[in-house]
Amino acid sequence: MSTRSVGLGVAAVLVVTGSVTLLPLATGGDAQDDAAPSTTPTTAPAPRSTAGQKGLGAAKGADEEKWDGKVRILGDGSTSYTGPQPGQLKPERLKPGEKPPQFVVFSWDGALEGDDRLFSRFRRVAEESGAHMTFFLTGIYLLPKEQKNLYQPPQHGVGEAAISYPTREHIRMTLEQLGKAWKEGHEIGSHFNGHFCGAKGGADWSQEEWTSEIDQFYSFVQNWKTNTGFHDLDPLPFDPTREVVGGRAPCLEGQKTLIPASKAFGWRYDASSSGDFQLWPSKKGGVWDLPLQMLPFPGKDFQVLSMDFNYLYNQSQGLTQGDPARYAEWRKQTRDSYLAGYERVFHGSRAPMFIGNHFEDWNGGIYMDAVEDVMRDICRREETRCVSFSELTDWLDAQDPEVLAQWRALDPAQPAGWASPGT
Questions:
Q1: Paired residues of 73 in beta bridges
Q2: Strands 287-289 and 282-284, bridge-based pairing
Q3: For 6-57, what is each residue's pLDDT tens digit?
Q4: Which of 36, 225, 283, 380 could join 78 via S-S bond, C-beta 3.0 to 4.6 A?
Q5: What average pLDDT score do residues 373-382 get?
């Protein structure tokens, strides 16, 4: 059946805009585990307003060419430049008529390492599966609660957030995971800061307000030593002004004004649009638009958005811990849905597949288990590449735009014939 003839069902549509308003906050916590940090900065923090100076691909490439092999400590010592990121996919233009790989991108919103150690778990799964992933970091997950007045969210009071500030121990754990993840080839992107949705959330923000939110995200990453007092920790092994080139907005809201704001920082993609069929990506406002996707939902006559919470919404009606007697059934249904989406495009258009997740134990952790099963199953299959969003955008930029336009017109289950113009 053509994907475009399938109804979406009321639940699937509703959850697109409301999916993350019910997220539990247990992993963030408010308790502070360590002594209060020093509030005396060792160096001046980076300026707030730096729009237009971030993530510029041309500048990044030139700097890498001149790299002398020496680590450069940046700012207050929170970050550093250690050279080009290891192990990245080399983008090469396909030859005329050549079939593209089946790209799959697994991404994680928030990227906090909590007591459940899910960040480190999926780093291990990725290593064993030959996969790269994208971790969309929430900026205030590097900011202790006692320093929350440093956050000035758009349209909200100073220090306000719709999520909990992390414990100091969780900040330490998250910093360790971020550094290891980057060295292993994973991407660090942005999930912004306060996770505001609905009224006074991202959809209501102006371009200037998004610019402030992005500036503050960079500041929290670049100044975590000053803000936490954790001067015993090594700097992150990457410069976020070079490496952060995209993000996903909370609740998938605000793309209209977010894109022009993020483009001024040199960002190359946005993953904030709310669901689309499994189509080849296109650009919106000059950046790649990489939306979550509608996937077959076994046993239902509609499709479901490719994010863990949307499966939960349809299975346990939004309850984060539903009927345990149905966990095995729901886990299989989720896994089979991901695999059905993969099989449809692998044998069809080869459109990249996007799967979004949160580090949560919803419904007994079945969504974590389903994603792990799928990663271990598909990422080492022939002609399949599990990559980050930044690797995918590098590859897309290397392709013939006319060929991509041809593929974009395909139904997901429709093979392209893989012929370029004039062949």
A1: 80
A2: antiparallel
A3: 222 222 333 333 333 223 323 333 333 333 333 333 332 333 334 334 444 3
A4: 225
A5: 97
pLDDT digits (tens, 9 = 90+) for 138-158: 999 999 999 999 999 999 999
- Which H, E and C letters describe 172-195, residue by residue? HHHHHHHHHHHHCCCEEEECCCCC
Distance separating alpha carbons of residues 418 and 168, to the nearest angstrom: 52
Split at pLDDT 50, 70, 90, the class of 174 is very high
φ, ψ dihedrals at 108, nearest 5°:
-130, 125
152 belongs to a structural domain: yes
CATH label of the domain that carries residue 362: 3.20.20.370
Residue 372 lies in a domain: yes
Check residue 407 and give its pLDDT.
94
Distance of alpha carbon 246 from alpha carbon 326, whole angstroms: 37
List the structure tokens of 396. Answer: 């897309």
Dig out the tokens for 40 from the structure. Answer: 């005396």
Q: Which long-range contacts (CB under 8 A, 24 or more apart) does 79-85 make?
A: 79/221, 79/222, 79/235, 79/236, 79/238, 79/239, 79/240, 80/235, 80/236, 80/237, 80/238, 80/239, 81/238, 81/239, 81/242, 82/237, 82/238, 85/182, 85/185, 85/238, 85/243
Band of residue 82 on the pLDDT scale cut at 50, 70, 90 = very high
**Distance (Å, whole) CA 330 – CA 319:** 13
Q: How far is it, in rounded angstroms, from Cα 68 to Cα 243? A: 19
Total Cβ atoms within 10 A of residue 114 = 21
Alpha-carbon gap, residue 178 to 263, rounded angstroms: 24
Reading the block at residue 284, the tokens are: 């919106």
Expressed as residue numbers, the domain containing 167 is 72-408
352 within some domain: yes
Give me the number of domains the chain comprises: 1
- Single-letter amino acid code for the residue at 125: V
Distance CA 416, CA 102 (A): 13
Residue 47 lies in a domain: no
What is each CA distance from 327 to 72, 312, 330, 333, 370, in whole angstroms? 49, 11, 5, 10, 11
CA distances from 415 to 5, 100, 109 (A): 18, 11, 32
216/223 Cα distance (integer angstroms):
10
Residue 419 — left, alpha, or beta (φ > 0 → left; ψ -120 to 50 → alpha)? beta
Select from 297, 301, 318, 322 the least CA-distant residue to 309. 318
- The whole-number pLDDT of residue 417 equals 74
CA 102/CA 96 separation, integer angstroms: 17
Q: Where are the beta strands (DSSP E) in 294-401?
A: 294-296, 303-305, 353-358, 384-386
